Amino acid sequence: MLEFWSVNSIAFNILGYPMSYVEFLGTIFYLWSVWLISQRNILTWAVGIVSVLLYMVLFYQIRLYSDMIEQIYYLGVSVYGWWRWSTTKLNGGEVLNVRYSPKRKIIMAASITIALTFVIGALMSQIHIILPAIFPEKASFPYLDALTTIMSFTAMWLMTHKRIESWYYWIIVDVIGIWLYYVKEVRFIALLYVILLFMAINGLISWLNAVKLRESSS
Prior knowledge:
mainly alpha, two-stranded antiparallel ribbon, 8 helices, about 5% strand
């Protein structure tokens, strides 16, 4: 059974690329969760939890350690987001009151993101020395990987609070991710990030339209 979740357990080949079961299933659930959150649907958190667990297994195997740790954070935040959205006003499963954060909080969030990127990048560049038993090989692109990780942390937290600027974070993460995963030869995930980029743009537009609709009806 454990062999099924190995990156070497291939479900099918697509354009010469061997697609593992864990990568394929993680991708399907992730895309579904992103589409749901763009529609402000509370089911996004349940579906997202499944994708988080699958990607945690995948990233450990391909040595993107920051991304693996990121999934642990996502798991906790997904549970929190599910709870938080369930306590707010819904309309047929849709969250209504999406909005921008105050300017001061936007600047503070960006500053914390930049500072933590340097800290985590430095740590991950040495993680194979600090914890060789758990991380036997040197991390790939530790600072760039840390940047996308911390930006994703910030975006996910903002999502739980229904903040529109979270989509700008996701757009930047997706652009970087397209290149990073292509270089790491996880090309289906690179393609996924192309799709996610368009979905993030659509999500931003959808949330902005929800605000306009709310303002016009008030």
